[in-house]
Design brief:
- The N and C termini lie far apart (53 Å).
- A seven-stranded antiparallel beta sheet has the order 3-2-1-7-6-5-4. A six-stranded mixed beta sheet has the order 11-12-10-13-14-15, with helices on both faces.
- The longest helix has 38 residues.
- The protein is α+β, with helices and mostly antiparallel strands.
- It is 41% helix and 25% strand.
- The protein has two domains: 131 residues, PAS domain (Beta-Lactamase), CATH 3.30.450; 170 residues, Alpha-Beta Plaits.
- It is globular.
Amino acid sequence: MNDVILSLEGIGLSRFLQELDSVMIALLDENSRILAANRSFLRLMPPSARGGQPWDARTLLISPQLEDVQALVPYQGRALLLYRGMLHIAHADRKNHFLQGHIYHWPQGRLLVAAECDVEGLEALGTTVLQLNTELAKIQRQWSRANRESRRSEAKLGKPTHCDSSTETEKRRRLEEVLAAEVERSRRQRHPLCLLIADLDHFGQINERWGCAAGAEVLRDFAALLHEHSQQGDLVVRSGGKRFIVLLPETLLEPAVVDAERIRQQLEWRSILSLHGPVTASFGVAMRVEGEGAEELLRRAEQALYRSKREGRNRVTQSIASGQIAAPNVSSC
């Protein structure tokens, strides 16, 4: 098993972390099999699993389920924090462990699992991952910049007037047209329809401290993040200076809430690498109910957004109409 321990060096982790007893670290492949682990993690594994073949970590990590964590992976080939919270680790012939931990998305569809026994050790791991993420973030920003330049070139050749060229999103007028049509289609076909409103928190402070150019960059990056989470048929609209609305046809409430929470977490995580300090956003989500028109749906989503602002910002709130079932782990109004 020494080969497994040493293989952690190949993913950029220091020998200090490999031999550390206070942090459990394991690298999993796309099928949740353990490819590498440090000494502390190996002690959790039964003797029968310490052979040469990769071992399925799903029999060890009880909660969260790795299938659910894998479903949260939004970017192929980039190391990002996916989960932060309690890890329930156990095995049939071992006692239960409830530990604070992190799960990161690693290149090639892999997962890096780290559970802390003390804060100092986890901070050392976080520093290493942050250094790796910094390099990846540079590449991502370069790609986003090139993509925006390409879109601007297309605009010069005849971009429709309903497009907001500064963020590559649609304008509010376009939302009014499409929302009315989607509400009618939802009514006629009895298909779900959700609306997500996102508003950047304390955006004025960014402009005041770093200047309007920095504020414009934050807006473009946030719009790009919303686009990255959009599917074919969704509509991303800039509605005012720092507010965006995403129309989600054929989408139920819980998936819409999960998507909003994922965007919120990734915006907060990206801001760690930003030169402009922390950037967060508040979200409101609503799903149309039978007999509801466009204005009422929009009003309920806005009320949910205002609740997120009142409760401290940087959170997601869902509007629950009569007869609807709320998504778990998110505030409701």
